[in-house]
């Protein structure tokens, strides 16, 4: 079996590459296209570190075959900032110390971005639900939820 061509929009730029049969999107993004922002956590879809947006929907890139995203739009944290201007979520995560080791941060940011794209003023419970597929071993989730609330301009309790 030969390599399969894949053409997609990655973080607002048309990109193309070749994938091996059965290669997951995470590996294709990291090795094939050089986007190191999605992290390899478990390779089994249980940790959320590899979360990306595919046509606006959060997906675990370790579970998506690379060949299935041809013609689609894929967004990673590598495309959140607008030039030197950080996205509000990135700023809120930094200001609120929502990243400790930082390994879960890319997946958390993308899950949060998908939520805010659907609902610009979510409640704490809605945020907790939206990031529930993303594991964090360091923060206890409170600073992450607070940062997401802060990015929306809502008052953070506490």
UniProtKB/TrEMBL annotation:
Residues 4-80 form the 2Fe-2S ferredoxin-type domain. GO terms for molecular function: 2 iron, 2 sulfur cluster binding; metal ion binding; oxidoreductase activity. CDD domains: fer2 (cd00207). It comes from the Bacteria. Keywords: 2Fe-2S, Iron, Iron-sulfur, Metal-binding, Oxidoreductase. InterPro entries: 2Fe-2S-bd, 2Fe-2S-bd_dom_sf, 2Fe-2S_ferredoxin-like_sf, 2Fe-2S_ferredoxin-type, 2Fe2S_fd_BS, Beta-grasp_dom_sf, Diverse_Oxidoreductases. This is Carbon-monoxide dehydrogenase small subunit.
